[in-house]
Amino acid sequence: MSKMTGCKKSDRHAYPRELVDFIYEQWQNPSFLEKIGGEGDTASLQLPECRQLEQVISICYQASLMREEERPVMFRLIIREPRLFPAEDGPPTGLHRLLFTRPRPFNEYELHRLAPAADFYRTLIGLTIDPVHGTQIWGLVHSGTRWMHSVYGGRKTFPPLPRSLVVYVTGPGQISVCLGEEIIASLNGGDINCPTLDVFNSSWIAHSLAAVRTETWELHQAARARAEKPWALLDPEFGKSVGQQVMRRLISVIRNAGHGGMLVYLPTEMTEEILAENRYMTIKYQFLEYESRQRFRNLTLRIMNTLAEIYGDPEDPHKRVGWLEYVNSKHEAIALLDEAIFDVAHLLAVLAGIDGAVVLTKRQELLGFGGVILGDIDNVGMVAHALDTEGTRTEPVLSEGVGTRHRAAYRLCQKLHDAIAIVISQDKSVQIVKWHNGFVTYWDQVPTGVPGF
C-alpha cells in the first residue's frame, strides 16, 4: 500500500509504480471522471497501457534526480500526437507546435539534455506512445506563460491545454500527472497527493465576506447613479472574482519570494480593538488611518466602476458586463488598474518577509505587519484537516507536527472565530485556517509539486 496524503496512508513510501496504480484506480471512480468532465467524452480520457504509462513516469522520475549545472531538472511533458496541434497557432492565445525532423529517443538522458531548452514556464516536451515504434519525443510545444495566471491571479486569457496527459517534473522525486490543466495526482517526498481544494470558491468564504462585498457593491451602485453618462450593468459576481484574483496574486507572490509568511484577516469592526492593547495579538508596525491603508479595496471598486463606464452604451442601457469583458479588455485604464493591484500584492509580499503576520481586515484594509499572536491564548492540541472544500469531511490531526506560524494561526482562530489565517510555508505549501463547525480547521490550498500553483 502506498503512502497517500489526504487519500490513503501507510508507512511505506510511494514510487512511480504506486503513482500509476493510483491513477488507474482514480480512472475507475465515476465521481472522479465526472469531476474532470469525463461524462460524454470518454474517448479523450483513454489512458495508455499501464506498462507504458509506468515507463513514462519512471523515466521522468529518474530524470528528476539528475542535475543541470547544479540546478534541479524541471520540465513539462505532454502525451499527444503532433498532428492534433494546429500548425498555425501560437502564444499568447494558442500553442506553438515545433516538430523535430527526426524523433528523439525517450529516456532520462534525453530529458536531461532537453530540459534547459524546454523552459518549464513556457514550453512542453511533446511525446507519443506508439505500439510499433514505442515512446518517442517528437518535438516541443511553446505555450507562453499566460497559463500561470489561473493560479497566480490575473486577468489575461491563456490557451487551455488539450485534454491529454501532462506530466510536470519540478524537482527531485516531484512529479504531477494532469489531464490538461486538471491535476490527477502528485508524487512528492514519497507521498501521493490528491488534487487539493480551491477554497476560494467555497460557500463559507463567500458567507464570511458577504457583508464586505455587499458594501462594495452598494458603493458601485451609488457611483453608477451619479454618473453623467450611462454605465453598463455589472455582473453582481464580478467583485467576487476580482477579490479572488487579488488573493491568488498575493499568495503566489509570497510563495515565489521563498521566505513564507502569514496573512491574518479580521472582521472590519475589530479594527480599533486590534490596533490598541488587546489579548489576541500585537502589531509591531501599524499604519495610520489614511486612504493609502485601503488601497486594495479602492482599486477593486475603481475596477468595477471603470469597467461599467467604458462599456456603457446609450443605445443599450441593459448591456451586462463581467469577468469575460475584464480579461479581454485592452483599455489602458483597465490595464493600469490591473498593474496597480499586482504592485500592491508585491508590497504585501515584502511585508510578509518580516517576522510576524501581515494583518488586514476582510475589507482588504492593511492595518500593519509584524503581527505576533500573544502567548496567553490557549494552545490547540488537535485540529481538523478539511478533506473537501466546505469542510464537511475532516480528519483529526495533532497540531504539534507543524511550524510556529501554523500553531500561531491555530491559536488565533480558536480564540477569534471570525478570523481567517493564511499560512505560506517556505516549501510553498499553503494552509487556510478558520474556526469551522466547532473546531479549528485547515484546508490545504496548494497542490504539492507544481510550482506556482
TrEMBL record:
A Pfam family reported for this protein in Swiss-Prot or TrEMBL: DACNV
Superkingdom of this protein's organism: Bacteria
The DAC domain, residue ranges: 268-447
Matches recorded under InterPro entries: DACNV (IPR048551), DNA_integrity_DisA_N_sf (IPR036888), DNA_integrity_scan_DisA_N (IPR003390)
Entry-linked Gene3D superfamilies: DNA integrity scanning protein, DisA, N-terminal domain
Name the UniProt record assigns to this protein: DNA integrity scanning protein DisA nucleotide-binding domain protein
Native organism: Geomesophilobacter sediminis
